[in-house]
Design brief:
Keywords: Membrane, Transmembrane, Transmembrane helix. With 71 residues, the protein is mainly α. The protein has one domain. It has 3 helices and no strands. The longest helix is centred in the middle third of the chain and has 27 residues. The two termini are 38 Å apart.
């Protein structure tokens, strides 16, 4: 679930907090919350995809039966 998109989005979230708090302005967390929300959605989609893939794959014991024997 930690692909390049996730790493870039985490860096963007950190930069949004760091850069938004300059010049004595109050903290504007809309960008940070939006980016974190996108990360949660992305992680949820990845988890659902992996769960579906695991459910569709045959168990490892069946792999030995299905794989061709080396000669």
């Amino acid at each position: 679930m930690w692909n390049r998109f996730s790493w870039v989005m985490e860096a963007a979230a950190i930069m949004a907090i760091a850069l938004a708090n300059g010049d004595g302005k109050p903290l504007d967390s809309q960008d940070f919350v939006s980016i974190v929300w996108l990360l949660v959605i992305n992680s949820s989609i990845c988890l659902i995809e992996k769960t579906i893939l695991v459910m569709l794959l045959p168990p490892p014991s069946l792999w030995m039966v299905l794989l061709p024997k080396p000669r």
